[in-house]
DNA sequence: TTCAAGCTGAGAAATATTCTCACTTGAGTC
DNA sequence: GACTCAAGTGAGAATATTTCTCAGCTTGAA
C-alpha cells in the first residue's frame, strides 16, 4: 500500500501517520518473512533510533486492525506478524527461514456453507495457514539462516 | 479415548499415567469448550486438590504431542486448548461461549497439491479454524456465559 | 503560527510460561 | 506385597512478553 493511501486510511479514522509508524512500515515492506515484535523493533531502530518498543506493539495492533498485517500462528512464545498484501490473504509459512508466501484462492466457501448448515453456527471468519519447507530450505536443511532471518 | 488405550499410548513412549494427568483428562472430557491453561488447572484442582500449575502446562503439552488436544488460536493473551476427538480434526469455535465443534472433512488436499506445485514448498501441515456464533449465543447475544463457561 | 488531539518513549507493572529441585509415585519385577 | 528407580510432581523462583502510565512531543488542520 502506497504511503498516501495509508495516510488516507489512517485519516479516515482520525489517526496520524507518525515517525514510528513509518519506520515500522518500512521494516515490513523490506521483508518477506514473518517477524516477531522484538525483531520489528530492532529493525525499526536501525531506521529511526528513537522508536520505542511500546509503539511497535501499538503499531502492529493498529496494522492488524487495518488488515495490513496478521498474526502467524507459529509455535513460538512470542507473537509473530506477517504483512498482508492481497485482501483476504492466507499464508504459507516456511518452518526453516520464516518466508511467507501469500495466496488467496482458499476455496472455502462451500465448506463454510456446509458447516454453517450442519452446525447452525453463524460463521464469521476463518483462519488457515500452511506450513512446510521452501525450496531453498529443503536444499540446505542444516541451516536456518536463509534470507538473513534467524529463527527465534 | 478410553483410559486403557491412553495408558497404552503413554506406555509406548515410556510415560506414566499419573494422578495429575488423569485429573486433566477428566476436565477435558467434561467440557465441549476450549479452555485456557489456568482454567484447566482450576478445574483439575476441584478433582484433585494437589495438582500443580506446572504439571498442567506439562500435561497439555504432552497431550498436544499425542494429538489429543490442540491449540485454538483465539485472540487472547493466554494459550487455549481444545480436545481432539476425531483424527485430523478441525475446529469451529463459538466466539460467544467458547463451544468447540469438530469436523474433519476439510477437503484441502487439492489446494495443498496446487500450492506445493506453484510455490515449490514441501507442505508439511496446515491449520484451519472457523469462528462464529453458535445457535445459542445468537439467540442470547448479551450474555457470554452459556454452558457455564466465562470468557477470559 | 497556533492548537489540540493523537501519539510517543521510557520504564514500571502485570502476567503467562518455563525452570529448578528435592520429593513422590507409577508400574514392572520378584 | 515389597522393592526399585525413572518418570513425574508441586511450589515457588525466574524469565520473558506484553501492557500500562504519564509527562512531553508531533502531526496536521485552521
Q: Can you tell me the overall shape of chain A?
A: globular
Enter the CATH topology name of chain A.
Answer: Arc Repressor Mutant, subunit A
Level of helix content of chain A? 25-40%
- What is the domain total for the residues of chain A? 1
Strand content of chain A: 15-25%
In quaternary terms, these chains amount to homodimer
Q: From the alpha-carbon coordinates, what is the Rg of chain A to the nearest angstrom?
A: 17 Å
Low-confidence stretches of chain A: 143-152
Mean pLDDT metric of chain A = 87
Main-sheet strand order of chain A equals 1-3-2
Relevant CATH superfamily of chain A: Winged helix-like DNA-binding domain superfamily/Winged helix DNA-binding domain
Q: Helix/strand-derived class of chain A?
A: alpha+beta
Element-level helix/strand string of chain A: HHEHHEEEEHEH
Per DSSP E runs of 2 or more residues, the count of β-strands of chain A stands at 6
Q: What is the top-level CATH class of chain A?
A: Mainly Alpha
Can you count the helices of chain A?
A: 6
Amino acid at each position: 500500500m502506497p504511503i498516501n493511501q495509508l495516510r488516507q486510511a489512517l485519516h479516515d479514522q482520525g489517526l496520524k501517520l507518525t515517525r514510528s509508524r513509518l519506520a515500522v512500515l518500512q521494516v515490513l515492506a523490506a521483508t518477506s518473512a514473518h517477524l516477531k515484535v522484538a525483531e520489528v523493533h530492532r529493525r525499526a531502530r536501525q531506521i529511526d533510533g528513537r522508536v520505542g518498543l511500546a509503539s511497535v506493539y501499538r503499531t502492529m495492533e493498529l496494522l492488524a486492525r487495518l488488515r495490513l498485517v496478521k498474526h502467524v500462528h507459529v509455535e513460538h512464545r512470542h507473537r509473530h506478524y506477517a504483512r498482508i498484501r492481497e485482501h483476504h490473504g492466507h499464508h504459507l509459512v516456511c518452518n526453516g527461514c520464516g518466508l511467507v508466501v501469500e495466496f488467496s484462492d482458499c476455496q472455502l466457501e462451500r465448506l463454510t456453507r456446509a458447516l454453517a448448515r450442519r452446525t447452525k453456527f453463524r460463521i464469521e471468519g476463518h483462519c488457515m495457514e500452511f506450513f512446510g519447507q521452501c525450496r531453498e530450505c529443503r536444499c540446505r536443511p542444516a541451516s536456518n539462516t536463509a534470507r538473513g532471518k534467524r529463527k527465534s
